């Protein structure tokens, strides 16, 4: 194979080659700066419009990293809005269910104050006993909320430094060519891990570990040169970036995957299949393109399906990994089987990842080493930490 060592470092000379301080993964002070200078300032994806398809539908998102819980509502006017899920009376949550639907009104269960889907307070129970409390001053506290394609983003800054369109500008022309219509939420996983959020993400920002850690699971669905995995592409786009995964020269799925593939495309088969790019629409770099939207969203685009990861810091050594798969609607029992197989096919490599993340996190705390290293195929993993560090130092 023609392979140019340090091909990505040469293309992106501005990206440092230095060892990375372990402190960035273990220091509570650094974590506090990440909360304030990354998560409180940047646009964060909190859901998909498919979670609230009709006016009046809503869902609740716990943002532990910012000590709040958000209520995202599809308004009767069709607009999506986000609010702190907190009643203006004495602070109870307004929506208690994680997901639901209303006819424009939500009543607080504690003492019955009522809000509409624009966040306006429309009823104060026992109003005469609240002298001086005006409904117009006590609506829900809103949070900046914008939608791009299927993705709902919020920004917790009082005044965002840039619009969502500006924030996503380095990637929207390309990702926007993927047709996100016609998919339904097919499955989800939610994993609570004892790991720093960057350690968790870095393992998703490089495929180089596939032939090692995932030797028995994913490795056969990707191209491996000798014992090395080489990305079909890695590109840095501002703070964001993308990995392209090369399909293997030939792919023989395991027998159950083979059976499932007769009824519908699953993730493992899609990983292993070469995509013929059409002239129109999204152009794949490999069988599978994995976009990283800073700071914590991944959008995996495959031929005929997509999936997302949202990785939420909880503490310096604890994170939540949310995984959601979006597939075409199931029409037959065979397609349901293919989809379920696809779900469990992802589970084993994820468990290999999670187990490893936690061991890494535990060992980073030992103090045995002050630095870790990233090689050329890991440049996107390094790029996450560089972007975070720029934010922490007030430079991005
Ligand atoms: S806390 Fe909501 S009505 Fe009292
Ligand atoms: Fe992995």
Protein described:
- The chain is of the alpha+beta class and about 400 residues long.
- It folds into two domains: about 5-40 and about 175-390, Naphthalene 1,2-dioxygenase Alpha Subunit, Chain A, domain 1; about 45-160, Rieske Iron-sulfur Protein.
- The protein has ten helices and 21 strands.
- The chain has helices at about 5-10, 25, 30-40, 165-175, 195-200, 210-215, 255-260, 265-270, 335-365, 380-390; strands at about 20, 45-50, 55-65, 70-75, 80-85, 100, 105, 115, 120-125, 140-150, 150-155, 185-195, 225, 230, 235, 240-245, 290-295, 295-300, 305-315, 320-325, 370.
- The strands form five sheets. Strands 2-11-10-5-4-3-6 form a seven-stranded antiparallel beta sheet, with no helix packed on it. Strands 12-20-19-18-17-16-15 form a seven-stranded antiparallel beta sheet, with helices on both faces.
- The radius of gyration is 22 Å and the shape is globular.
- The structure holds FE2/S2 (inorganic) cluster and fe (ii) ion.
- FE2/S2 (inorganic) cluster (FES) binds near residues 87, 90, 110, 111 and 112.
């Amino acid at each position: 194979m023609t392979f140019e060592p340090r091909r990505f470092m040469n293309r992106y000379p501005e990206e440092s080659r230095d060892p990375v301080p372990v402190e960035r993964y273990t220091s509570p002070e650094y974590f506090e700066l990440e909360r304030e200078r990354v998560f409180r300032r940047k646009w964060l994806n909190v859901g998909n419009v498919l979670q609230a398809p009709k006016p009046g539908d809503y869902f609740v998102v716990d943002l532990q990293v910012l000590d709040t819980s958000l209520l995202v509502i599809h308004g009767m006017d069709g607009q999506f809005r986000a609010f702190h899920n907190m009643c203006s009376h004495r602070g109870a949550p307004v929506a208690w269910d994680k997901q639901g639907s209303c006819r424009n009104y939500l009543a607080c269960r504690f003492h019955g104050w009522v809000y509409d889907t624009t966040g306006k307070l429309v009823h104060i129970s026992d109003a005469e006993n609240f002298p001086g409390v005006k409904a117009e001053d006590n609506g829900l506290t809103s949070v900046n909320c914008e939608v791009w394609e299927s993705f709902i983003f919020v920004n917790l800054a009082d005044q965002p430094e840039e619009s969502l369109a500006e924030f996503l500008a380095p990637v929207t022309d390309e990702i926007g060519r993927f047709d996100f219509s016609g998919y339904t939420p097919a499955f989800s996983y939610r994993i609570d891990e004892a790991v720093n959020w960057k350690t968790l993400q870095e393992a998703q920002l490089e495929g180089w570990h596939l032939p090692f850690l995932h030797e028995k699971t994913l490795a056969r669905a990707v191209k491996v040169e000798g014992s090395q995995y080489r990305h079909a592409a890695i590109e840095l786009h501002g703070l964001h970036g993308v990995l392209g995964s090369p399909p293997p020269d030939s792919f023989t799925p395991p027998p159950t995957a083979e059976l499932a593939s007769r009824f519908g495309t699953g993730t493992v088969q899609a990983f292993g299949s070469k995509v013929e790019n059409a002239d129109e629409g999204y152009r794949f770099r490999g069988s599978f393109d994995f976009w990283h939207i800073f700071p914590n969203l991944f959008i995996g685009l495959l031929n005929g399906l997509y999936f997302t990861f949202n990785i939420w810091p909880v503490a310096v050594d604890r994170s939540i990994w949310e995984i959601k798969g979006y597939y075409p609607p199931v029409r037959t029992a065979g397609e349901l089987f293919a989809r379920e197989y696809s779900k469990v096919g992802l589970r084993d490599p994820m468990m290999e990842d999670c187990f490893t993340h936690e061991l890494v996190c535990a060992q980073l705390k030992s103090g045995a080493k002050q630095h870790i290293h990233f090689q050329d195929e890991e440049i996107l993993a390094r790029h996450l930490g560089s972007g975070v560090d720029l934010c922490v130092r007030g430079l991005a």
